[in-house]
Design a protein that fits this description.
The strands form 4 sheets. Strands 7-8-9-3-10-11 form a 6-stranded mixed sheet, with helices on both faces. With 367 residues, it is of the alpha+beta class. The protein has 2 domains: 2-221, Rossmann fold (3-Layer(aba) Sandwich), CATH 3.40.50.300; 239-365, OB fold (Dihydrolipoamide Acetyltransferase, E2P), CATH 2.40.50. Helix content is 22%, strand content 35%. A hairpin with a 3-residue loop joins strand 17 and strand 18 (316-323). The protein contains 8 helices and 20 strands.
């Protein structure tokens, strides 16, 4: 586990006050509006910002003001990636990557670091860039090199501060599969700062929602995304993430089918092979509900669901739906959907928690 109890007061009125325990593996995303304290918290974890409190990684104390313990940044086993790649412009990629290896005290350490670097180069697909200078690389290539450099020191924690924010949509799409690969193949906890929900949906396992320097909510990604009481549900991109298995391809109609606990969905053709674990994002605006099983309909996906909670405002209602018609309580495990409908429709259907419904999900809308 990563333990962080940190407090910081700035003269301009901003205050950071967090008490967190993050998983010791996977990606923990720090999410929130600009100025909420995401980068400040990340820098405090790294020791770059002097907050008061306690930071512990897997039992190793990096900071404990109560006992007078403070490890400076260079003694913390971490890698740090920022928005700009910050490579040395006068060195080629290979020499940029090897720069940190010179700090190794022994031949054995250098061998271990070289192995870590070789693994990072392979995972990030930058083996063909070694002789090139940073100025000749695309933004996505430069950022992949920067990530490899951070991994070359064999960190026990990787901190990433909006690593895709400086990239356009094309370069962002280029680098996201490599970040997913790191997520799958490295047994390394990553704390990832972003304000982009699409990055959270693709990469995160654990989500921390920050507001004005404080933790509004924290927990497993699927759990937080499906809550109707959080600001996440008021966003246009509100929706859930479903972990599933790819079970079929229909080449004639360019469709694929995924299966998960309690149901299955058709979606646009996926490139992965049958049997692979995949992650699908279902937006609330693409889900509607009906009280009766629809007959002839253009909607490919119809799932039995039970309404667990709803949150209404002036014009719309956000519904939290658990897949399945069983009578298990709201705390039961399972797959959830969100549906955003008009308040008029909500009242016309006389919806209330506990209702057994059918959710309709457009196949063409699924990602």
């Amino acid at each position: 586990m990563i333990e962080a109890r940190l407090h910081l007061q700035r003269s301009g009125g901003f205050a950071l006050a967090v008490d967190l325990q993050l998983p010791g593996q996977g990606v923990s995303a720090l999410f929130g509006a600009s100025g909420c304290g995401k980068t400040t918290l990340l820098r405090a974890l790294a020791g770059l910002e002097r907050a008061t409190g306690r930071v512990v990684l897997a039992g190793e104390v990096w900071q404990d003001d109560a006992s007078g313990c403070w490890l400076p940044t260079h003694r913390r086993a971490l890698g740090y990636v920022i928005q700009e790649a910050a490579l040395f412009p006068h060195l080629d990629v290979q020499r940029n990557l090897h720069y940190g290896l010179r700090r190794a005290a022994s031949a054995e350490q250098r061998i271990a670091l070289q192995r870590a670097l070789d693994q990072a180069v392979a995972l990030l697909g930058i083996g063909g860039l070694m002789s090139r200078r940073p100025a000749t690389l695309s933004g996505g290539e430069r950022q992949r090199v920067a990530i490899a450099r951070a991994l070359a020191t064999r960190p026990r924690l990787l901190l990433m501060d909006e690593p895709l924010a400086a990239l356009d949509a094309t370069r962002k799409a280029e680098i996201l599969p490599y970040l997913e690969r790191l997520h799958r193949e490295l047994a390394l906890p990553i704390v990832y700062v972003t304000h982009a929900m699409d990055e959270v949906a693709r990469l995160a396992d654990h989500l921390v929602l920050l507001e004005a320097g404080r933790v509004r909510a924290a927990g497993p990604l699927a759990e937080l995304l499906s809550r109707v009481d959080l600001p996440l549900g008021r966003q246009d991109e509100a929706g859930v993430v479903i972990e599933a298995e790819l079970v079929a391809h229909d080449a004639a109609y360019a469709l694929s089918r995924i299966a998960f606990a309690g149901g299955a969905l058709w979606l646009g053709a996926a490139p992965q092979p049958i049997g692979e674990r995949v992650r699908a994002r279902v937006l609330a605006r693409d889900v509607s509900v009906t009280r009766t099983l629809p007959g002839e309909t253009s909607i490919l996906n119809v799932l039995p669901v039970r309404l667990e909670a709803l949150h209404a405002d002036a014009g719309t209602a956000l519904l939290r739906l658990r897949v399945g018609h069983d009578e298990a309580g709201p705390a039961a495990d399972g797959v959830h959907l969100l549906a955003r409908i008009t308040r008029k429709s909500c009242e016309a259907l006389r919806l209330a928690p506990g209702d057994a419904l059918f959710a309709q999900v457009k196949g063409v809308a699924l990602m």
